[in-house]
């Protein structure tokens, strides 16, 4: 078991991200009351900064509706911070190059609710397919139908093609995975 908490791993990753990409940008959504928004860039983009939530996301109503509990690491990833999505790289092995992916993060409460709706759809699809429940946390840059996901029962982080079983384990838990990820500017894509 990893002695580093998910909360700590997320905080460290956000700090490293801002060191490498000091002015991260995301799409500006006028309808959102997003405290992360710092400075508009043109019509469609904004520089953002992560914001620790005053109150953590409450998953209890959704857990009750779905008759399940979300893995604690999922609650910490999506429940403690508002942030733009993080463009990251993860080395999948000694002989394989690193994979680039977007780690999904809620930008504000409206975005958090939208994320929970999307997670609900994913969970219901997994149940319909009679597959173990996974929670998607990211999307590969090269294949937008390949997800980075957490096995909701074990907490393992793995890859899965949309609608398929997890096929490649990346880390034993989310904290270990996040500590191995590196910020990726995306300029070489």
UniProtKB/TrEMBL annotation:
It comes from the Bacteria. CDD domains: Syd. It holds the Pfam family Syd. InterPro entries: Syd, Syd_sf. Keywords: Cell inner membrane, Cell membrane, Membrane. This is SecY interacting protein Syd.
């Amino acid at each position: 078991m990893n002695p580093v908490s998910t909360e700590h791993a997320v905080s460290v990753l956000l700090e490293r991200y801002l060191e490498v990409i000091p002015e991260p940008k995301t799409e500006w959504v006028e309808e959102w009351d997003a405290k992360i928004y710092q400075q508009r860039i043109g019509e469609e983009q904004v520089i953002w900064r992560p914001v620790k939530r005053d109150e953590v996301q409450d998953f209890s109503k959704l857990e009750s509706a779905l008759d399940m509990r979300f893995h604690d690491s999922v609650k910490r990833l999506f429940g403690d911070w508002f942030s733009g999505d993080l463009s990251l790289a993860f080395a999948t092995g000694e002989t394989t190059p690193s994979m680039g992916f977007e780690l999904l993060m809620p930008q504000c409460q409206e975005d958090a609710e939208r994320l929970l709706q999307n997670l609900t759809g994913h969970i219901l699809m997994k149940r319909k397919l009679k597959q173990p429940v996974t929670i998607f946390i990211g999307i590969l840059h090269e294949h937008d139908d390949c997800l980075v996901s957490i096995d909701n029962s074990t907490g393992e982080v793995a890859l899965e093609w949309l609608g398929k079983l997890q096929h490649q384990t990346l880390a034993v838990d989310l904290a270990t995975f996040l500590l191995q990820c590196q910020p990726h500017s995306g300029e070489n894509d």
